[in-house]
Write a structure and sequence with these properties.
3-stranded antiparallel β-sheet; 383 residues; 50% helix; single chain; 16 helices; hpI Integrase, Chain A; 4-stranded antiparallel β-sheet; DNA polymerase, domain 1; 15% strand; alpha+beta
Length: 383
């Protein structure tokens, strides 16, 4: 049954469809008409009204603060991103705005924000030990937010796009060098595998560690695997969903959704050892609820719990200074390339969008064979 409810004048109306509340927008916040679109669903009319209020006119552009505009920008982006199943992107924007942009720039007037104000924030982040990549990502979020303000003619110049980030120090490590330090080798790798195999029937995350080492899959992909994705007859596992987190109030809640990119959808062959471990794990942890391999009472588990467990329990047992689930991905890909597996096959297996990304990240693992290359060239020229 459909019905129309109340709404804020000039910003559309609240509709009820099959027990859910929807916000139908019929005008731009500045009053200009446009094609209607629907936001929702919302669990209650109050939730729909609160979202409508967040989209209300902001008042005079002269008194508009950066924080006010970032709140508006995030509200609009939230609906677009979640509608496109891009929860991870929304969580990234929210984290950038909440942690850095609003605390440092939020009280400034939007129309008076300068490139130098942005550059002061970039310097603060770097001095606080944040990586150059993190600063670049936060700057990108602000650039996009200010572009939206430019489209609404609230500002003329984009202070973020005009700002510069201090260049990396010449002695800084490349991505490949940094990743190389995270790869597990020798006795440490053997101890990890033995420890995980011994604990698969009693500890959920022990099985997750073994599966990550054997596949090179991302953290969220491992946590998002269903039993229906594993074919014990062919020995293959499908990657089609992932678990990300979304901030709800003061906590982060696990959200099951599609994988990162189209290339992330893939089928991976598992080793006989891992297949046998999965059988033992399934006997100890029977499928329930959504059919997830790793679950809590049938519902998705928070991947942050796995990260915390690896740091608190596994890292200390192995005597390492640092360890996280993504290190298993680095270890898998690096050892495959070091063993001479074609980079195209490795890139497909770990779900990279482009082979160039695999080379940039794991180039350190590819054996140098300049003498072999030179001999091949000589044979070609002689022939």
């Amino acid at each position: 049954m459909n019905s129309q409810g109340r709404g804020r004048r000039g910003l559309g109306s609240i509709e009820v469809r099959n027990g859910k509340f929807w916000l139908r927008l019929s005008a731009q916040p500045d009053g200009k008409t446009r094609r209607q679109r629907r936001l929702g669903p919302f669990e209650s009319e109050q939730e729909a009204l609160e979202r409508q209020a967040a989209l209300a006119p902001l008042g005079s552009a002269k008194s508009l603060t950066v924080g006010d505009w970032l709140d508006r920008f995030l509200t609009v982006r939230r609906d677009l991103l979640l509608a496109g199943n891009r929860q991870a992107r929304y969580a990234e924007l929210e984290q950038h705005i909440r942690t850095w942009l609003k605390p440092q720039l939020g009280r400034m007037l939007l129309a008076e924000l300068l490139a130098s104000d942005c550059e002061a924030l970039w310097a603060t982040m770097l001095n606080a030990g944040r990586s150059h990549k993190t600063v670049v990502n936060v700057r990108s979020t602000l650039v996009h937010a200010l572009k939206a303000a430019q489209k609404d003619r609230l500002i003329t110049d984009n202070a973020a796009s005009l700002s510069d980030i201090p260049k990396k120090h010449q002695a800084s490590k490349t991505t490949a060098e940094s990743v190389a330090e995270r790869v597990l080798h020798g006795d440490v790798l053997s101890q990890l595998e033995d420890w995980a195999l011994a604990g698969i029937t009693t500890e959920t995350w022990a099985m997750a560690c073994l599966l990550a080492l054997d596949t090179g899959a991302r953290r969220g992909e491992i946590v998002g695997v269903h039993w229906a994705d594993i074919d014990f007859e062919t020995g293959k596992m499908r990657i089609r969903q992932q678990v990300t987190t979304e901030r709800v109030g003061e906590s982060k809640q696990p959200i099951l959704g599609p994988v990162k990119t189209q290339q992330s959808k893939r089928t991976i062959e598992l080793s006989p050892r891992t297949l046998e471990a999965l059988r033992q794990y399934r006997d100890a942890h029977p499928p329930t609820g959504l059919g997830l391999v790793f679950h809590r009472q049938g519902k998705p588990r928070n991947p942050d719990s796995w990260t915390n467990w690896v740091d608190r329990t596994l890292r200390k047992n192995l005597g390492l200074n640092r360890l996280c689930p993504h290190d298993f991905r680095h270890t898998h890909a690096s050892h495959l390339l070091a063993a001479g597996v074609n980079v195209v096959e490795v890139s497909r297996r770990i779900g990279h969008k482009r082979t160039s990304v695999t080379l940039d990240v794991y180039g350190h693992a590819i054996p140098a064979e300049d003498s072999t290359t030179a001999a091949a060239w000589e044979r070609l020229r002689a022939g």
